Amino acid sequence: MSGVAELDAPTTGGVIEVFNPSTEQRIGEVADSDKAAVDRAVARARETFEKGVWKNLTAARRAEVLWRAADIIKERANEIAAVEAIDNGMTRAHARNLILGSCEMLYYYAGWVTKIHGDAVDIITEGGIMGTFQEYHGYSLMEPIGVVGLIIPWNGPFYVAISKIAPALAAGCSAVLKPAEETPLSALKLESIFRDAGVPEGVLNVLTGNGETTGAALAAHPDVNKISFTGSTEVGKILVRAASGNLKRLQLELGGKSPLIMFNDADLTRAIPGAAIGLLVNSGQNCCCTSRMYVQRGIYEEVVDKLAVAAKAFRMGGSEDTDVDLGPLISAKQRDRVLGIVNEGVARGATVVTGGKAMDRPGYFVEPTILTGTTPDMRLITDEIFGPVGSVIPFDDEDEVLGWANDTEYGLAATLWTENIGRAHRLAKRIQSGLVWVNCALAADQSLPFGGYKQSGWGHERGWKGLEAYMNTKSVYVGL
User: Fold this and answer.
1) Which residue of 229, 296, 309, 351 is surrounded by the most CB atoms within 10 Å?
2) How remote is the C-alpha of 159 from its chain's centroid?
3) Is 302 in the active site?
4) Is 287 designated active site?
5) pLDDT at 17 over 70
6) From 173, 287, 288, 289, the catalytic residue
């Protein structure tokens, strides 16, 4: 059992077995919550919202509760990280960093709670509808949107859960959280953590289940005012249709096929390790991973060789291992999909420089993989791989590579490596993505908005925009 307690069997719906991706061993089971369970959870959330047991607390009190929740998580960081690593397969160190990052997210939004307000303006009109001179005092109100459904993925479940819970509760909403069926275990700790911090019973509800059952019922529920979803573009499109019944608001953080562009003047002592991290973090299971790496021809051969060396240097191991850098993929299905994309590319002429195979050990491990000789129509270039696989493509000039970088249905993130500051700012404006890194990799902060262009999503998380996304704005005119 690896220290994870097996959960009680559900009273409704079926069960979902949970496996450790590092060992392929079963570590527990959770409920596949049915529509009736979703109805009950939404009803609890709706009751708490209408009664105002959370939203009507003073702002200072709600801020204090969120701060206390962060403190509890920080105190239990090692325990939660151990569960996250066993459930997801990520390394203990990476899991702990994400748990501590979730604390910072809560601290940040706790600080916003006492600063939520609208605007006020005095208005004088002449003529208009009334046909006379008129004075008004006008103001706007920021109000919580209501009951929100939060649907999170498997590639960092605890952190993504907090990135949604923190602004939702800061805004005064009540919530139903559905973790991914592959990684439900750390999310099951959240109800008790927030209850211990002082969030009233029923304000935050956690439901396990499959996407096509629990997730679908939550998305279509007529008493849910908003869905915040992180996951694939394919599922995002399904949610758009499911939300049409009551036109609930949607916040979608979807897929990516992020380009990296490295120019001849790049500082390779920083660019090579940065590119390797940007490609391989969490074994490539990150929507921002730069699996398309465009390198200017003057340094192309050198970069390919050094990237291969860097990739080989990453230490692979399971969630129980120490001193490792990368863990397995989430499942046998994902491992086979990733290797299928690699093998298909090789069959069509791509060359594996390093990696390209499953590891000969238990667990869903795939070697860090670098390829060359790809063409724009290969799935290696068009599809989100979600594995430790990157292709290196030579280019000659700025306009050429910009066209290639933007030639995708996605627009989540991009990375630029250049010492030319003018070029950096010029390309940052022209590239079609919601996030651009210049001479760095995967930098993130809760103060800046995170969201994508094109089919990478709708709306933003983090920052003020992330909080505003959980609120309605009302304008009031008072005649004087």
Assistant:
1) 229
2) 8
3) no
4) yes
5) yes
6) 287
